[in-house]
Predict the structure.
Amino acid sequence: MASPESSSPANERPSPARLVAAAISPSPQGEASPSNACRQARLSPATPRVLAGQVTSSYATGNVPFYELPEMGGSSQMRGYYQGGLRDNVLVDAQVELRIHVWNIFGVAGWFGVGQVQNTYSQVAWDQFHLSYGPGLRIMVDSKHQTNLRFDFGFGPNGIKGFYVDFGEAF
């Protein structure tokens, strides 16, 4: 695979680093800088189904303390992975979630996500992404503000798993 700095032939996929590099600007004085794009679309006006997507990138420059480095995992990104278990200067992740109202105050969700952490954007590679997926149960606790209590089960390869209880959607 060609590096982001080199030109790539028309039949070769661009690297993930090239895809996110245009949206990133350097952060001054050793800070971590997040970039987040989130979109939701109602699939059908007759049935309450929502397809939501999120793409996130964070990076750190300078002398950033370890516990402030971009981290992968937790209840809202890459569910199933322990929050902060994977940290480095660069985080790139994306997820898609389908939310379906089932009956009365109950709903379900299912998602699929990929992400990775690296030292630099040039090291981000297609074959280095980690996988996250799982189901969730939604119980509407505040219909006026459309607030759900969510129960999510996150999974990944090699026994990665997590259970999350939280208010509101993951993103």
